[in-house]
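Working notes for the structural subgroup meeting. M.R. asked for a predicted model of this chain before we commit to crystallization trials. I am recording the input and output together here so anyone reviewing the notebook later can reproduce the run.

Input as submitted:
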Amino acid sequence: MILSIGPAAGPLWQALALAAAVAYAAAALAPEGAPGGHRVAALTLVVGWLVHALVWLGAIAGLDEPGQGPRFGFAPVLSVTVWLVLGVHAVESRFFPLPGVRRVLAALGVVVVLLALAFPGDRHPVASPWLPLHWLLGVASYGLFGAAVLHGWLLDRAEGQLRGRQLQPLAAGGPAGPLGLPLLRLEKLTFRFVEAGFVVLTAALLLGAGASANWRWDHKTVFSLLGWAVFAALIVGRHWQGWRGRRATRWLYVGAGLLALAYLGSRFVLEVLLQRGTVAA
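Returned structure, recorded in token form:
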């Protein structure tokens, strides 16, 4: 699905991965109340994110083991997904700082970087020139849906606070969510990520079906199509039935869960529980 750096990649790439983990840990632990704490947290998060990018970009370019082909595995996919969500958060935090979310995502960054070191997946040659685009689109859809899940959680949290009458009205009117955004704007942002992820996932599935010579109805295909169908139903329900609030976010969580089972779950079982390296692109 995506490329990774593993223990076999050599001490330089291991050192870069560990440096990313240390920077993420510093961002997660930086005290916000201390003088300059927010600046330290923001700086270390950006450093971790950039080094993290260097690690998996090095694998895409084949710099870790030239000529050996890309790596596949559940941990690399999870690593890049969290990296994409962190990128979205880094942009948003420039306008709407949210220390609690930053701590959680930075801690996740530590986990996924180390997980990709422990379970780097297997190297496989590229059978079709279209497959790399299929892989990249698939991981991009994971990142977009991951960002949607994060914003859906913030939306649920904000609505829970609203029911508890803990939200403060904005000058422009209406309650503010955890990002300091009006709830309607936060909801709209959440489903913009859903719609973008759905388009990218559709393209990935079409490319996968067209580019794979041994396409078959396995668990990965079934869960992927089920996830696609759930997101399609969510988009239709939102636009034509007016689905909102927790009803809509529940569909979001179910769709994201099915996609996670499609690749991450199956690869986790193969690589960790069964300790097998067979890959189906």
